[in-house]
């Protein structure tokens, strides 16, 4: 699969996605993965294909620390992917089950968020070289949880997510923005770990939804590979965290999951209304992706302009720098330099 970031943590879901002793199928960067929660509450991630006849483990069940295939009952250890039992074998069979392996993936938890390590080496079994990202407030259950599947490559989804100029056209609502409210903006950006940030600032005057929080909101928006965008809004001593994960399934499909965490009482009170707005935003983006696909199928040359598309350029530069670092074994050097970007929106 081309264009996917490797040797990095991918968002896999949240704790409530998995019932106790339950299984869930996700697809990340072309790999079907069975996520599971053992009886002791710990998590595991194993390739969701039985090597016998390709049935998905996620349609099976957990038994004593193993996952059982629903087709013929083959069982595999959830730690190392080793086959522990093949019920059809007779006592004199020469087949050695423990020589059969299924790929497993390191999995980690930060608060309510689950992460899977996606290595370029399919035999990787060790500890990842760095921990998954952690964010404030994620120890609490998300107040808003929404998601959508986009019919596009992850690059188009990420670039659409960080595009600062489409709002008045794709997301025009009376409570957000319109063409009549467009004005020039200048925002300071700076490099961050595996990405960059729009430094803390007061929201734009034509972003009316922020006013619902009262006081004088300050927001900081960050992006980091492989596709995590966060917006950290503070109002006095209260905080709202908007967490968005853009995760590729395959070359033509991408999932976006948006979660909101907050200790702000008014945000919690207004969350049913705010959830409808967030849901509308994601569906508007999905509709635009489908329109965009009508042009992309003809493989046109695309343009990126300064300064409105500089974040898109940084994204491509970050991916390239990350891939080179993993290939060479040299430390990753962030290509983003601090600067102020100006555009009209």
TrEMBL record:
Residues 10-116 form the Rieske domain. Coiled coil: none annotated. Transmembrane segments: none annotated. InterPro entries: Cholesterol_7-desaturase, Rieske_2Fe-2S, Rieske_2Fe-2S_sf, VanA_C_cat. Gene3D superfamilies: Naphthalene 1,2-dioxygenase Alpha Subunit, Chain A, domain 1 (3.90.380.10), Rieske [2Fe-2S] iron-sulphur domain (2.102.10.10). It comes from the Bacteria. Keywords: 2Fe-2S, Iron, Iron-sulfur, Metal-binding, Oxidoreductase. The keyword Nucleotide-binding does not apply. The keyword Transmembrane helix does not apply. This is (2Fe-2S) ferredoxin. It comes from Algimonas ampicilliniresistens. The lineage of its organism: Bacteria, Pseudomonadati, Pseudomonadota, Alphaproteobacteria, Maricaulales.
């Amino acid at each position: 699969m081309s264009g996917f970031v490797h040797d990095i943590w991918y968002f896999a879901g949240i704790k409530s996605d998995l019932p106790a002793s339950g299984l869930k199928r996700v697809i990340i960067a072309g790999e079907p993965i069975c996520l599971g929660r053992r009886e002791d509450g710990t998590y595991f991630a194993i390739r969701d294909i039985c090597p016998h006849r390709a049935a998905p483990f996620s349609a099976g069940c957990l038994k004593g620390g193993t996952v059982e295939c629903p087709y013929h009952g083959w069982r595999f250890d959830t730690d190392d992917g080793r086959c522990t039992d093949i019920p059809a074998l007779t006592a004199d069979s020469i087949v050695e089950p423990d020589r059969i392996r299924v790929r497993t993936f390191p999995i980690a938890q930060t608060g309510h968020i689950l992460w899977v390590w996606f290595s370029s080496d399919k035999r990787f079994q060790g500890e990842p070289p760095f921990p998954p990202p952690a964010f404030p407030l994620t120890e609490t259950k998300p107040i808003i949880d929404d998601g959508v599947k986009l019919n596009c490559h992850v690059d188009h989804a990420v670039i659409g997510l960080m595009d600062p100029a489409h709002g008045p056209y794709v997301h025009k609502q009376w409570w957000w923005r319109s063409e009549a409210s467009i004005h020039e903006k200048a925002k300071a950006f700076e490099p961050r770990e595996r990405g960059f940030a729009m430094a803390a600032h007061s929201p734009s005057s034509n972003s009316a939804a922020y006013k619902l929080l009262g006081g004088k909101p300050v927001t900081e928006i960050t992006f980091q590979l492989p596709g995590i965008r966060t917006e950290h809004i503070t109002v006095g001593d209260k905080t709202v965290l908007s967490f968005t994960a853009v995760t590729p399934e395959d070359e033509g499909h991408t999932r976006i999951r948006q979660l909101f965490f907050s200790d702000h009482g008014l945000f919690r009170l207004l969350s049913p209304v705010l959830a409808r707005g967030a849901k509308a935003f994601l569906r508007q983006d999905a509709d635009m992706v489908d329109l965009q696909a009508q042009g992309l199928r003809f493989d046109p040359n695309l343009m990126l302009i300064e300064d409105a598309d500089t974040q898109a350029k940084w994204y491509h530069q970050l991916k390239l720098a990350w891939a080179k670092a993993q290939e060479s074994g040299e430390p990753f050097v962030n290509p983003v330099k601090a600067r102020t970007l100006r555009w009209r929106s």
